[in-house]
User: Which sequence fits this backbone?
């Protein structure tokens, strides 16, 4: 990756709303160059989407999250991809990952209540033919999400003048 | 009744030769102000990376609270030795040629006291860090200040150094990347200086604490130049690169005989650097590379932000290639550096440091540290702009 691409990705990774003009100032490129580069990165699907991290709890929507671990029995001709596709098409499923180790797949499920999530898993997930077993862990508190610490940030007291 | 005394009568004469740091005045001016934005700090605005802090906490929990070797933990010196071989292709023997110090400030004091006889001259290239001149005076030496010229982007030349050398000259102190100007030196600039050092048979004290914050070109370690290893006391530390200012962790690299002499002072004054900080330093060297590069990339962005901002305001700012300072000229405003900085602080609540504090050739310039958040830099630029417009 060239230095300018890394710079643009770093800046947008930290704040997706940084304008091309500001990125231009920070990198020494022109705003047009930045816009063109971002367009290329979008086309190449290196930049997939611009998202907002929302504290839904604070907003008053008290979603319930659970991490579901699955053991999968693979059938002839059907790899993990096939089961993953079946799973990720449910809107309740927020993430799906193939794992090494004891379990094969981990996914995050979001619902409005524990009951709703539990029934979703029992009815839609556990009943899939390739799913051998499920193990559901409800999330009690999220401390860090996608690199962002959700607790109050550290306050560092430094002198205002130093040599 | 016993006779009264004036405590001042006990103070050594040499203290009167040392002026108090000009920065102190700004500290007092600012202490009770609110809504102040500071570009006045010579330290990273980052907290020390967590893996380093965690290593320190772990060591305390496991009872690592004792003295260490006077030289510092051997493990740390071995890491430092490897680090210099890897990065600069210059080898220092961990057992005898590396001394772990409590900040570069201590290393500087030891270096000067170890080599200066009363009356010896030490050339100090300015603008530069405020401790060099006082340290020489404390040691009974004679500081000979030499101003790097703005026309030459604050790089000192071999000819300028040569012209300041007398038969009493013992050493030259340089600091690149430079505090307060952000100037760096190219290898060829340093090679020419190395020739002068050999020709006059003197020593170089090279303070390279901003080494890792070099944004254009590559940093050349002075002792890595041919023939310079035995003529250099290299000072460096963890404060700037790893955001570890409060740990006071630094080191000196020099030939055995010089380290021996520095060690004599160190063992009777400091004994050893704090063990917890040394543990942090080992962790920093082993696993800190990614964080260093990440912080440097962000400083580089802020550098571009502040330099273009200052130039847009009309404060002519040369391109600082290292450290985290911009050093704009304020001569177009007709104010002295002191007046500018003081009025900017009292009227617009932005802290900067007048350049003359760092040496005569810094007059007419302002040190603006960009080790501050982008939001703060933008707000400061806005206020500086308003101040300049209103003049």
Assistant:
């Amino acid at each position: 990756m060239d230095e300018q691409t890394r710079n643009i990705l770093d800046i947008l990774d930290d704040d997706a709303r940084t304008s091309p003009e500001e990125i231009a100032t920070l990198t020494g490129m022109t705003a047009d160059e930045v816009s063109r580069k971002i367009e290329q990165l979008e086309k190449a699907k290196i930049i997939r989407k611009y998202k907002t991290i929302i504290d839904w709890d604070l907003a008053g929507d008290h979603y319930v999250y659970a991490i579901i671990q699955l053991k999968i029995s693979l059938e002839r001709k059907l790899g993990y991809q096939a089961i993953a596709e079946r799973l990720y098409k449910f809107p309740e499923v927020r993430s799906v990952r193939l794992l090494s180790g004891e379990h094969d797949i981990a996914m995050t499920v979001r619902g409005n209540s524990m009951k709703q999530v539990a029934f979703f898993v029992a009815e839609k997930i556990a009943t899939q033919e390739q799913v051998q077993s499920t193990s559901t862990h409800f999330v009690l508190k999220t401390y860090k999400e996608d690199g962002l610490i959700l607790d109050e940030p550290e306050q560092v007291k430094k002198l205002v003048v130093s040599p | 009744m016993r006779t009264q005394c004036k405590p001042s009568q006990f103070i050594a004469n040499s203290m009167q030769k040392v002026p108090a740091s000009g920065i102190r005045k700004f500290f007092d001016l600012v202490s009770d102000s609110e809504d102040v934005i500071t570009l006045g700090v010579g330290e990273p605005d980052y907290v020390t990376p967590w893996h380093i802090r965690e290593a320190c906490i772990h060591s305390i929990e496991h009872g690592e609270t004792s003295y260490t070797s006077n030289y510092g933990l051997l493990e740390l010196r071995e890491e430092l030795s490897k680090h210099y071989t890897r990065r600069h292709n210059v080898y220092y023997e961990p057992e005898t040629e590396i001394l772990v110090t409590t900040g570069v400030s201590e290393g500087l004091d030891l270096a000067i006291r170890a080599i200066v006889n009363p009356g010896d001259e030490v050339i100090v290239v300015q603008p530069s860090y405020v401790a060099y001149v006082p340290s020489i005076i404390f040691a009974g030496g004679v500081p000979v200040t030499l101003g790097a010229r703005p026309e030459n982007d604050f790089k000192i030349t071999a000819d300028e150094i040569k012209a300041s050398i007398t038969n009493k000259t013992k050493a030259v102190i340089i600091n690149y990347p430079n505090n307060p100007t952000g100037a760096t030196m190219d290898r060829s600039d340093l090679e020419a200086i190395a020739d002068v050092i050999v020709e006059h048979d003197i020593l170089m004290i090279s303070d390279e604490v901003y080494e890792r914050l070099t944004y254009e070109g590559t940093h050349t370690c002075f002792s890595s130049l041919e023939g310079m290893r035995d003529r250099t006391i290299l000072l460096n530390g963890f404060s700037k690169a790893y955001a570890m200012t409060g740990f006071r962790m630094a080191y000196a690299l020099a030939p055995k005989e010089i380290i021996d002499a520095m060690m004599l002072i160190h063992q009777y004054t400091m004994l050893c650097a704090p063990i917890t900080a040394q543990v942090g330093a080992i962790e920093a060297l082993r696993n800190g590379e990614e964080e260093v590069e990440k912080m440097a990339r962000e400083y580089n962005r802020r550098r571009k932000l502040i330099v273009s901002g200052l130039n847009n305001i009309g404060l002519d700012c040369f391109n600082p290639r290292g450290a985290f300072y911009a050093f704009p000229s304020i001569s177009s405003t007709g104010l002295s550096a002191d007046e500018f900085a003081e009025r900017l602080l009292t009227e617009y609540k932005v802290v900067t440091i007048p350049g003359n504090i760092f040496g005569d050739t810094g007059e007419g310039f302002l040190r603006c540290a960009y080790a501050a958040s982008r939001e703060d830099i933008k707000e400061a630029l806005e206020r500086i702009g308003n101040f300049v417009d209103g003049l």
